[in-house]
Amino acid sequence: MKILHRHWILVGLAIFLGVAVFASQLPNADWDGTYRPVVESVLQGQNPYTVRTFANPPWTVLLLLPFAFFHPEFARGLFFAASVAVFFWIAWKVKAPPLAAIALFLSPTFIGGLLANNLDIFVLAGVLLPPAWGLFVLFIKPQLGFGAAIYYLVDAWKTDRWRRVFATFAPVTLGLALTFVLFPVLAERLFFMPSVNPWNRSIFPYGVPLGLLFLWLAIRNRNPFLALAVGPLISPYTTLYSYAAVQIALLHEDVEQWIRRDVLQILLTVFLWAVTLIFRL
């Protein structure tokens, strides 16, 4: 049994490295344009916010740092492969039907995020961590994570009032407060991002009712995973591939009480490809 287990580990590692080598040749935006320069500036002892496109809290560098010790092209391939691995880990944790996971994987939103080497999938995985730690990951991209943050606030209040709220939110609140004091430029970038970023595809305010519905469902089912859908729907800044958060939220097994997940994900993928091709998004 142990030999068989090791065999599958080696197979998985070979697939991971193969994907990384293949992906190192693909075009990308965020790794070369933002994340690699950020890590290089930090390793040189500089302020990460000298990179003008960097609009994430400073602990984001901890996530990026392991990739910095490889050749730049292979590093972005590793980043791509790690994103794929995290997605399938999430799908496994929520017991997603294989067809549902494959349909989501082939959607234009998810493919776009992978090709851009975006951080979204890592951020969404934060909901699988204990809340006090997961909030640090979720707030790497507030437009994705604040729905889950609201859920945690409500759940903490119901569980043990101020004591649980303090235990859950004090660490990330302190971290954000220090960030805005030490790096005030981040607050400015977050504030102006909806108006200056050409990749903004927000449907605010039209998505607010649907976002509130997801928040209500998350609270009713005591399921923070469903709250991942809230952010992209009610945020004034959302890229096209960030809507994959809604699809990933709908991978959870709780969705089966309303509709089969494989059917839902296939319908969503067909719809999103139609919208993408018609409007050339």
Short description:
With 281 residues, the chain is mainly α. It has 14 helices and no strands. The protein has a domain at 84-279.
Structure explained in plain terms:
Helix content is 68%, strand content 0%. It has 281 residues and is mainly alpha-helical. It has a domain at 84-279. Helix 1 (2-23) crosses helix 4 (72-93). The longest helix is centred in the middle third of the chain and has 41 residues, at 142-182. The chain is globular and about 50 Å long.
End-to-end separation in angstroms reads: 49 Å
**Helix and strand pattern:** HHHHHHHHHHHHHH
Strand count: 0
How would you state the average pLDDT, rounded? 88
Low-confidence stretches: none
Q: What is the rounded Rg? A: 19 Å
Structural class computed from helices and strand pairing = mainly alpha
Overall 3D form = globular
* Individual helix count: 14
Question: Sheet bearing the most strands, described?
Answer: none
What percentage of residues falls in helices of 4 or more residues?
A: 55-70%
Strand content: under 5%
